Amino acid sequence: MYKQIGILTGGGDAPGLNAVIRAVVRTAVGEFGMKCIGIEDSFDGILGEPKYTKLTLKSVSGILPRGGTILGTRNRGSFVKIIDGKPFFPEMPVEEALKNLEALEIEALIALGGEGTLGIADQFRKHGYPIIGVPKTIDNDLAATELTFGFMTAIDIATEALDRLHTTAASHDRVMILEVMGRHTGWIALHAGLAGSADVILIPEVPFSFKSIMDKIRQREKNGSRFTNIVVAEGAVEVGTQPIYTDKEALRLGGVGSHLRRRIEAETGKESRCVVLGHLQRGGSPNAFDRMLGTNFGACAVRALANGQTGKMVALRANEVVTVPLSDAIANLKTVPVEGQLVRTARDIGISFAAPNESKL
Length: 361
Ligand code: F6P
Prior knowledge:
This protein is an alpha/beta fold. The protein is built from ten helices and 15 strands. Strands 3-2-1-6-7-14-15 form a seven-stranded mixed beta sheet, sandwiched between helices. The protein has a four-stranded parallel beta sheet with strand order 9-10-8-13, with helices on both faces. Strand 14 and strand 15 (about 320-325) form a beta hairpin. The longest helix has 22 residues, at about 150-170. It starts with a strand and ends in a 13-residue tail after the last helix. 6-O-phosphono-beta-D-fructofuranose (F6P) binds near residues 12, 75, 137, 138 and 234.
């Protein structure tokens, strides 16, 4: 049994990170009698002069409903470089980190993060260091787990935004566009679009035709609805074009909503507005589901380490938390199945995805 374990959070934050941290500490200390060290600012906290804090039952008291992460996080840091849009893991930092972990007497690690963080965790596994990953992303795009915490909270926030935009759109007879997160996948846009009664949902998995958006707006006008609500994932693309970036160098997406707003206004003469929901989807308190899922993931991650597992990620499968190899966890993205039930349901109730042949689908 390990005497002392470490925990860190990496990548963009997500509501529920503190729920996981609390559950890890409570399980490690309370159930297994281990000590717990919180590493600050992701894996970078174990380079150079390490930045860490002792985590006790007292120090995690009251953090369950708190947004963000009490440990701090970093998006990329020193362990991963992006070369030609692909992650590359330089060898040096892992070796330095392993020396520091030994000096700090941290015998195993629990790493909370998405694709990038779990990829770094897998480098530690390759060096024989005991490590368990906990999946985190509001985008819900990791194939190895049915759900990631933070996603349900993000949907709640996007749905509330759509509800609010609905009433103002209807009052002014406007086209309202809500741009939500979702780099490669449209899970947030799809779920919130269904829950928040969008008329058009634009997702990366279904390249859109501008003409199909126009057709939908005009058809609604004909039927007496003089407003239209559109939800667009930041990674959605028009057929034959590339995603729109606010900062191409940093691969930071954004701008598809205002781009569409300008074109819709020019084409229809209708007043149009765009709202970018941005980090409101990631900040603040997790909802009840994400607190519960984060807690379950945290406790199961410690139990996995205590049972001698390593190089695994906890994952939700058929309502049970199981462990899967870290290498599987980072291998595949979970995209929205374009022929799947949710997309079918959305079309059945009259929502358009603005595919080029949408009216025939
Ligand atoms: O967590 C993933 C994500 O939410 C993406 O959808 C989005 O593009 C990205 O984070 C933005 O993160 P940041 O502003 O931290 O770079």
